[in-house]
Amino acid sequence: MKFHREFEIPWLGLKDGLHEYRFEVTDKVIEELGHEHPDFENLDATVVLKLDKHSGFLQLHFDIDGSMDVACDRCGDPFSMRLWDEFDLIVKFTGEHEEENGEDEDEADIVFVPRSETILDVSTYVYEFIMLSMPLQHIHPDKADGTSGCNPEALKLLSKMSGGEEVRKTLWSGLDKFKDLDTPENKN
After folding, report:
1. Which domain holds residue 111?
2. Which of 11, 87, 107, 115 could form a disulfide with 62, with the two C-beta atoms 3.0–4.6 Å apart?
3. Is residue 1 predicted with pLDDT exceeding 50?
4. Is 21 contained in some domain?
5. 35 belongs to a structural domain
6. Does residue 150 lie within any of the structural domains?
7. Strands (E), the chain
8. pTM of the prediction?
9. Is pLDDT of 106 > 60?
């Protein structure tokens, strides 16, 4: 794991108010941070972090924009997928032996950091938020004429293979007559 100081923010020396940081993240940076990325290649993302420092906490706003190459879930061909998302995080400072407020324990967007920590490392948050900005489905976007952007040969093969749907529908079609037995007019 390579040491990346650009993700470390010395919050103790910052004045109260808004501060902005920009991080250029590639798949090489992700690997150097010690994270795996088996689902994508050629990551090119820009993460803009707006940090608003207050006396007892920090408000972090991450704005992610970029692209990565992924394999299409439908046809298997690679394509470039756009990333964009925004995430907010609150960092609260606690004393060495100070207890956290119990009502905030369940808040996923709040992180507690001891006041003795003078540097905030945001590399893990940058990685996690990039992963969260990936859509769950990786499917080619449609072309301008409205047709699928997927490989046409793969789509033909998929339509041939999905011919078994009719067999499954006819197998269970006899149960359709029992579907509406619990309606109010059948109870009278």
Report:
1. 5-132
2. 87
3. no
4. yes
5. yes
6. no
7. 8-9, 17-26, 41-53, 57-71, 78-94, 110-114, 120-121
8. 0.73
9. no
